[in-house]
Amino acid sequence: MAPGRPPLGPAYHRLWASTALSNLADGVLKVALPLIALGYTRSPPLIAGVAVAAALPWLLFALPAGALVDRLDRRRLMAGANALRAAVAGGLVLVLLLDAGSIQVLYVVALVAGTAETLHDTAAPSVLPQLVPSDQLPRANGRLFAVELTANELVGPPLAGVLVALAVVAAPAAPALLWGVAAVLVPALGRSLPSGPPRRDRGTWRADVAEGLRFLGRHRVLRAFTAMTGLFNLTSSATQAVLVLYAVGSASPMGLTEQGYGWLLGAWAAGCLLGSFLVERLQRALGRARAIGSAFLVAALAVGLPGLTAHPVAVGAGFLVGGVGLVVANVATVSLRQRITPGPLAGRVHSAHRLVGFGAKPLGAALGGGLAELLGLRAVFLVMGGLALLALVGMRAVTDAAMDAAETGHDPDGPSGY
Asked: Which superfamily, per CATH, for 13-185+203-408?
């Protein structure tokens, strides 16, 4: 710990530890499913369908998830979501052992696991502002991003490749075990992890959801961040949905093995891990607005890079740099949203943001599969890389002055009187 920095506290570190197992499980399953799908089909739209099914719940259930998070015990929601994911991964193990698998079964597994994810991943960041002071949020979020990305993106993908190569059933068995342990650990945090902030009198579900949407919609800076995130996720999901076809197999442009594919994805995570420790320094050196704009720029360039070269080292290096940009942008925007949003609205505002930001993922995955079928795999990366650069238009609304005004409550375009 740097001199003069107050400790984040035992409650935060317990939350940090409980996050690691859940994200490692998620990282293994999300890479294992498309690798398993290659045993059933090589059709780009059908392979992309796995990513569509995994991300579709953010489009369908993000807003109800936010309302639940602001109404119920956030610890129990996190534990229940992990238990459900453990059950569905365990079910896939049984299906594979019985040789009853199909691409449709993988869609169901991805859909159910994705639905549980909307609850868990909406509850977790809504708890954080209760555990650390506002001025420590960038550091706390950076450390959480570090463990999430290390487990989810750096360790999970290579581990998935190894498990699939060893035995197909091992790939879903590992996350089933990890989620099961995580489900048990979350309630054990009860003495240190608050269940949620005090709520005002509850209205109807529709009124609850509308309140979160209005708060996000009236904040100019938050609107810009949400639009930028949605566009970037649309483009990155389009490329990620077909990357397995572009990368894996002797006949693919990159010619990687399953293990090599896992390491390629791990380059994104390595960059994200590095970025999580650089975010504070970059913000101090460049200012928040320039740091965020630069981060979106390098991440967008990484999206299109495979369209320019299929060399694994070059693509991996681009993913590494893009990962740095991705996490710098994420930490800065999430920390700002946490500072601005009142505690009782945290779940709904977070879910409203993810309705756009993560709801774009299934649309992007479907778009990537369709473009690959019509224009070829390389064209997907080139087209989506160009579109990703359009996210920078949102930086016109994201200035240091605008962010400062939003945090101090002096933004003339922001909501007031909550």
From this structure: MFS general substrate transporter like domains (1.20.1250.20)
